Amino acid sequence: MRLRVTHANHRPTGQQDSAGRSAVSSDAQPAPAPQQAGTTETLQTVRDADGQVTSVVRRTLLPGGLRILSEQMAGVRSASVGVWIAVGSRDEEGALHGASHFLEHLLFKGTRERSAMDISVALDEVGGEFNAFTAKEYTCFHARVLDTDMALAVDVIGDMVTNSVITDEDVEAEREVILDEIAMHDDDPDDVVHNLFALQAWGDSPLGRPIAGSVESIESMTREQILDFYETHYRPATMVVTVAGNVDHDAVVRAAEAAFNRNGFLERTGTPVLPTITDAADPVTPGSRTVTRSLEQVNLVLGVRGLTRNDPRRFVLGVLNTALGGGTSSRLFQEVREKRGLAYSVYSFSSHHDVAGLVGVGVACLPAKVEDTLTVVRAELARLAAEGITPEELARGKGQLRGGLVLGLEDSAARMSRLGKAELVYDRLMSIDEVLEAIDAVTLEQVNALAAELFVQPEVLATVGP
What we know:
Layout: E1 4-6, E2 39-47, E3 53-61, E4 67-73, E5 78-85, H1 99-106, H2 116-124, E6 129-134, E7 139-146, H3 150-163, H4 168-186, H5 189-202, H6 215-220, H7 223-233, E8 239-245, H8 249-259, E9 287-292, E10 298-305, H9 314-325, H10 331-339, E11 345-352, E12 357-365, H11 370-387, H12 391-408, H13 412-424, H14 432-440, H15 444-454, E13 460-465
């Protein structure tokens, strides 16, 4: 059953060129007037077939640039809270490699009002889930609680990001934890091969380096450097608060204003910091890299330059990626595993950033099967470039994407994440029906044209194994 979506505002979320967004896509449309500070807009109202409201998305822009988005969902008793900061490992240079992730860890260590134990107890005693993660372009602190505990979750996270103490002792203790985490990732061949793939593609650059940093950068990073990084990047204009579930927007705004008003944080001035929007992907460096490890299997990643996050062809790529290696009916699964028994697991993927992207294939096989496996994978990519996919594969790919989208957005945490990413890294918040329509609109000619463009490019290969 399709839902009816009403766009009650005049501006797609995030399109504020005057606030710093660089809209350089060849398909870019004239940007509507930016939202005024101190105002609230309704971005989407969704109704079911009977006209009952099932979802309302609203957005408030505070004077200092802090954005607060909520989605009121019918039929749930939870509230998922996220605080998104527009800083990640791609914002780090030289000695600051790993600073975003280091800082994410340190903000759990205590504030002027709560100890590290107090932070943990506050969410544990109400049965909440609480965590954080760092990506290449953003950092997120998130919690999922009962709807009645929404304000508590907002307050705890707001306290952490505006009021942390970051002591010398905490820095030294967490330094050891992160070094152990780096060692853990270094023991995982899948992590190693994907990091190696990015390094070959983008070199020793912020996009090409691991998010957690290196042993050398983490060992040498000082408390003063981390504090400077914190002051530079943790500002109202770089932050987005998103809440989804059984929530009232005005209550969310009141909770956020109270939680983020510590130490005069909301008194800072600024306009929202927004991403670059372009469909021109940076070039990659073709070639291969190998890391020798004493393993039973060889892990391989083979790929080419892909599309940027906001490229209008991203839905076309989604269908192509699904047909290539997105499930047990995909070409790679059938050819590599089912027909030839070369590997247990094989898949394709696409990774997107604001100005760069990659499309690739991942597979792990026995050392004796490496050459045969690479031969089959390369042959399938060449066949896709020359012949494209079939109408049956197009239909399956669309169906898989549609089902995955709808099923993946049935909980409040997924809806909260959707709001945060739309505001921080996408050009606007698309409704679910809009996305479904974009998938349905993909044609066989579009998929085959994109396959012919992508899979004739020089390859990037990463290998980890004996």
